[in-house]
User: Which sequence fits this backbone?
């Protein structure tokens, strides 16, 4: 068996037999982790770079905003965010930049809101005075 055949078999097993892997690979959250965006960015807190909330507030959440931010991920303009550290260019495929930009502007904020709503539901269900300690 050649290395090429082995690579093909691994590809088939990974992406055809387990199609969930494809969607995970192409998710914004996966790309956020893959490119270690959390090293400089947080969803709501100012860090080395602006928060996703600040970015979303500045650019909006439209399709054209997603495209603009995708281009800025690939080729950042430090003058857009004075007072923050320089973001190096990310030489990634434009399709991945689009997915990542959608995550930055929309999905990460929606996910945080869902998590907050879920925790509120827990507090509604549990009555702290009736808890045994």
Assistant:
């Amino acid at each position: 068996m050649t290395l090429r055949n082995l690579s093909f078999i691994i590809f088939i097993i990974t992406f055809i037999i387990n199609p969930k892997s494809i969607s995970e690979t192409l998710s914004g959250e996966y790309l956020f982790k893959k490119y270690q965006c959390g090293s400089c960015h947080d969803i709501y807190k100012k860090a080395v770079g602006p928060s996703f909330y600040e970015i979303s507030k500045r650019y909006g959440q439209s399709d054209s905003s997603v495209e603009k931010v995708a281009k800025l991920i690939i080729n950042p303009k430090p003058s857009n965010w004075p007072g923050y550290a320089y973001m190096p260019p990310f030489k990634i495929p434009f399709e991945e930049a689009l997915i990542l930009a959608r995550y930055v502007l929309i999905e990460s904020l929606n996910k945080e809101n869902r998590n907050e709503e879920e925790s509120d539901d827990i507090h509604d269900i549990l009555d702290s005075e009736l808890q045994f300690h």
Summary: Residues 64 and 95 are 14 Å apart (CA to CA). Confidence is low (pLDDT under 50) at residues 117-133. The chain is about 60% helix and 0% strand. Helices lie at 3-17, 20-25, 28-34, 52-59, 63-74, 94-125.
